[in-house]
Structure prediction request, 176 residues.
Amino acid sequence: MGLALARNPIRVLGVDPGLTRCGLGVVDGAPGRAPRLVRVGVIRTSAGDDVAARLLAIEAELESWLDSCRPDAVAVERVFSQQNVRTVMGTAQAGAIAIACAARRGLPVALHTPSEVKAAVTGSGSAGKQQVTTMVTRLLRIKDPPRPADAADALALAICHLWRGVRLEALGGNGA
Prediction:
């Protein structure tokens, strides 16, 4: 992505990966401009279902979002170490599905850490979920806060990528 494109609005799909709840948020914007909400939601799968069926359900829904929203880039939360290995495995699997769906379409993918996303939208890398939700609501100038937190986190990922990823790409980096 060149500097000229970075100055024009782009559409980013943010993915807050999870096997039970996978947050999705689509935002239009560019550095220096207020971001605009396009769509937000959560893919839900049942913990009682087979993991393969759950991953296929996430893939099908992500493909549907990619078809309908047509993003220019995809931003996925980088998996970080957690105490619960089962939880981190599901998060990593759902994140990999999002990366594969984007790659299949030739879309650039960026991975952002939770602290990077929090710092981008709140100014503090240690902000809590409520603070992130509050700032996403303000930044997007929407009346009702996105719920659940996975939806707000997905929007925060998209905003982070608009503000940080596009700048890095414009300077020759990869935004990851």
